[in-house]
Amino acid sequence: MDPIRNPYAPGAGQRPPELAGRDEQLRAFDVVLERIARGRPERSLVLTGLRGVGKTVLLNALRSAAVRKHWGTGKLEARPDQALRRPLSSAVHQAVRELGHPEQGQVDHVLGVIRAFAQREAGPAPKLREAWNPGISVPAARGRADSGDIEIDLVELFTDLGGLAADVGKGIAIFIDEMQDLGPDDVSALCAACHEISQSGLPLVVVGAGLPHLPAVLSASKSYSERLFSYQRIDRLSRDAADRALSAPAADEEASFDDEALAALYVATGGYPYFIQAYGKAVWDRAPRTPITADDVAVAAPEAEAELAVGFFGSRFERATPGERDYLRAMADAALADSDADDIGSVPTAAVASLLGKKPQSLSPARDALLKKGLIYSGERGRIAFTVPHFGRYLREQG
């Protein structure tokens, strides 16, 4: 098969040639956009799932849907070492530019509020050389979104943004990836601002994406967050959707897979979108002709697995210290030995400690470090799981 015509695209956040299995989410978001634009009440949206299920791809697809409706949009990626003000200011600045409001005076007022919000950090004023310029030419507004209290300021910022969008009968959508990495104060402020906006009926929506424990992070910040957001779990693809993710791009290149090849690929990938793209690319390059067969899959599988071992699993494993790696391996062994393991493969922290021959308390530093690095998560008290699908299998194969 011609590698130049290979349609498969494994990559972080890279849209696959066929966005299979996400039609329901796309249709539901179109309804959200229409309802908000018409002044109807609607909740902000939170997408959760393991790494490799396509949350970022879907987030980008939802943003494209908002752009097609002529909304103003902005996107940011949360980081544990960065406060919300600056990246959010850049995102909403872009949203205001996309909105195309005809009254420059009103636009300048909101831009001034964004600048005030961006530059007002809690604590002492920064030195001149450390001051940050958000790329806004108008002067910072005074007395609006500049109190230094992130919760007050964010409510005021969102209110002004929503008012600007309402003037032109459109909306503003803010997309936040890796939302679980926001700091506690920023999470609390974001919940409060979304709550205020939903009560006022202004056309602004937040769409967040994060790891499976994101709902718990939001709930710990504000108890009403359980009712504030619409939560959608993004999971592996069904067999039909996985087959479509492989077959549709191949058909566009006048190629196909036989039924046995599709069955073998579903077993190998588990239906995870990133794995489907990785295996699809490897199989295409190895197959001598169309239709692609199960034998072609068997020949290409070691190449796909080697690529995943380096780029998907290995890069994450390398971030862990020796002690943290011991903890990860013990998690993998505990999952294999636990006959009561749930559908996400979580294991009791006590079982990990038992395998390592240590008290659970003594392992808290390693566990907390792995949580902060995003390699594991805790969906419920006393249990932990990998954020990466098939990570346990990878660790056991490494020995």
Description:
This protein has 399 residues and is α/β, with parallel strands linked by helices. It has three domains: 23-233, 3-Layer(aba) Sandwich (Rossmann fold); 242-317; 322-398, Orthogonal Bundle (Arc Repressor Mutant, subunit A). It has 16 helices and eight strands. A five-stranded parallel β-sheet has the order 2-3-4-1-5, with helices on both faces. Strands 6-8-7 form a three-stranded antiparallel β-sheet. Helix 6 (184-200) links the parallel strand 3 and strand 4. It is globular, with a radius of gyration of 23 Å. It starts with 22 loop residues before the first helix and ends with a helix.
Keywords:
globular, alpha/beta, ATP binding, AAA_16, 3 domains, 10% strand, 399 residues, 3-stranded antiparallel β-sheet, ATP-binding, 5-stranded parallel β-sheet, 16 helices, ATP-binding protein, Arc Repressor Mutant, subunit A, 53% helix, Rossmann fold, metal-binding
List unreliable stretches of 5+ residues. none
What is the rounded distance between the termini? 35 Å
Count of helix runs: 16
Average pLDDT figure:
91
Anisotropy-based shape: globular
Q: Provide the β-strand percentage band.
A: 5-15%
> Helix- and strand-based class?
alpha/beta
Residue share in helix: 40-55%
Order of strands across the widest beta sheet? 2-3-4-1-5
CATH level-3 fold name of the largest domain:
Rossmann fold
For the report, how would you describe the main beta sheet?
5 strands, parallel
Q: CATH superfamily of the largest domain, please?
A: P-loop containing nucleotide triphosphate hydrolases
User: How many separate domains?
Assistant: 3
CATH architecture of the largest domain: 3-Layer(aba) Sandwich
Beta strand count? 8
- Rg of Cα set: 23 Å
Topology pattern, helix = H, strand = E = HEHEHHHEHEHHEHHHHHEHHEEH
CATH class of the largest domain: Alpha Beta
